[in-house]
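Go through this one:
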Amino acid sequence: MENKIANLSWYVLYTFPRAEKQVRDRIRLDDVECWLPLHRTPRVWSDRVKLVDVPLFHSYIFVRCVEERLYALLKVYGVVRIVYYNGKPAVVRPDEIEAIKEFLAQSAGRMLVVGEEVEILTGAMKKVSGKIQKIKKTYLVLYLEQLGATVCVNPADVAPTKRLK
């Protein structure tokens, strides 16, 4: 049994677009260890904002099995192909899997919310802080009290000054 566990490796499968969760569930039914890294992100609709879990890597999932078992997973509906590197199935080292898990754990608390005070990190307004008034799909609407102005900024260009309780 211990020898069999030693032969298990992490591989990458490419799936149909937006089918990662269904493929993960189907593969787990075959008793194969499968991991789909998800992160929680706000999705904006016309009437609401909702937090949803989306794949970190779109159309990719990780499976842990022996190489021979990997080829049988191609029959699972939704799996398009095995990801190859140098003519062989790409093997992901366990420390890389752990690094992704650690990244997800650290970034889980990094979500911006309406009313939060943020500081602009780049551009002409660098180091100016403001309160988030709206969160849109590709930008934030900030009210800058010092200037009495409202501006739109990229979410990647701001950082929280302090967390809301």
Summary: The first strand starts at residue 9 and ends at 15. The chain has two domains: 2-107, 117-160. The chain is about 20% helix and 40% strand.
